[in-house]
Write a structure and sequence with these properties.
11 strands, 0% helix, mainly beta
Length: 124
Amino acid sequence: QVQLVESGGGLVQAGGSLRLSCAASGLTFSSFAMGWFRQAPGKEREFVAVISGSGGISFYPDSVKGRFTISRDNAKNTVALQMNDLKPEDTAVYYCAADRYLVNWSKRANMDYWGKGTLVTVSS
């Protein structure tokens, strides 16, 4: 079965950096767009980043654009999210997701597969 396992979360001070990683198994990795969502306490799940199967196309919402970078290694079946200049409002559980389609990640949450999440806490 498909598994997405996130790692790299933790506690960091505002202005700091973290790198999240997601290891995928059980799927033809390069055939899937991969991305990240986050959910803060009491808030709805929010789209953070997505990257195409080839790695050539990526999208970000304005809230993280210029600070976060998504990348993937199709040889290792991994996707990473480099987060720089972190802010307290970035505090959330971050979820890795996989979907056959690249479109409309910012407008839907019915992805094919989800990880269980990793907690990122940014202190002020």
